[in-house]
């Protein structure tokens, strides 16, 4: 089988390593079948897409909507690398699934409006499939509505015509979309379980996702409802595109 790639941007080792472990667990891939590239640590390799089965993107600290003068040198480099990669991915309709930061990368490439209008605190939210989502093969087997972990400062408030809306939540209208037949992005985190999001809550406690006195409330919020369905998306992606 040709490998998949996970493009990661987390600088903190503990949540970065756990993110990779979660992708391995829920895709069912081995470390040789899912190659991790930590973009915050160095330049993105030049991928020959014909040598890969597909590409995953994990979440991260970058906000696409931040003004350019507030972005670090690393963020500007990573954004330029994604722009070049997505030019090829979208043109070829190559299998791609971006989780959380995927919305920022693919959305920016499409010219979507990304701002802080529809941010969501770290929590469990009800995600509802659109008619297109219910019919999409990547979401086969998921119920019409399911709980998912979220936590983001920005989101897409206006989705351009080439994209197909697949899922929404009450506070964030664009929770998942597709471009072409094989390029996907989610605002929610399909890779997360309770232990994983607990690690991130502690790791990013001073990153502005919640007030300093809201740690216990945030930990309680991610235990407020069961989350079991989103991870199926990762396994289905592998089953559909492994070659």
Automatic annotation (TrEMBL):
Transmembrane segments: none annotated. GO terms for molecular function: transferase activity. PANTHER family: GLUTAMINE AMIDOTRANSFERASE YLR126C-RELATED. This is Glutamine amidotransferase. Residues 49-192 form the Glutamine amidotransferase domain. It holds the Pfam family GATase. The lineage of its organism: Bacteria, Bacillati, Actinomycetota, Actinomycetes, Micrococcales. It comes from Microbacterium rhizomatis. GO terms for cellular component: cytosol. The keyword Transferase applies. InterPro entries: ChyE-like (IPR044992), Class_I_gatase-like (IPR029062), GATASE (IPR017926). Keywords: Glutamine amidotransferase, Transferase.
């Amino acid at each position: 089988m040709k490998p998949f790639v996970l493009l990661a941007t987390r600088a903190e080792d503990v949540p970065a390593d756990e993110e990779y472990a979660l992708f391995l667990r829920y895709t069912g891939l081995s470390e040789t079948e899912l190659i991790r590239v930590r973009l915050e640590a160095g330049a993105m390799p030049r991928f020959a897409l014909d040598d890969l089965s597909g590409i995953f993107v994990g979440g991260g600290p970058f906000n696409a909507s931040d003004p350019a003068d507030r972005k670090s040198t690393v963020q500007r480099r990573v954004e330029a690398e994604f722009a070049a990669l997505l030019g090829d991915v979208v043109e070829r309709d190559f299998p791609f699934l971006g989780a959380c930061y995927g919305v920022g990368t693919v959305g920016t490439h499409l010219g979507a409006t990304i701002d802080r209008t529809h941010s969501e605190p770290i929590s469990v939210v009800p995600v509802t499939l659109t008619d297109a989502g219910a019919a999409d093969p990547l979401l086969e087997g998921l119920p019409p509505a399911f709980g998912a972990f979220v936590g983001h400062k920005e989101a897409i408030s206006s989705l351009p015509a080439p994209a197909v809306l697949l899922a929404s939540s009450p506070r964030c209208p664009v929770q998942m979309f597709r471009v072409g037949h094989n390029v996907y992005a989610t605002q929610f985190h399909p890779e997360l379980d309770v232990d994983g999001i607990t690690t991130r809550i502690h790791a990013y406690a001073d990153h502005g996702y919640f007030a300093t006195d809201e740690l216990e409330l945030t930990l309680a919020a991610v235990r407020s409802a069961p989350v079991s369905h989103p991870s199926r998306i990762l396994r289905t992606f592998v089953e559909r595109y492994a070659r």
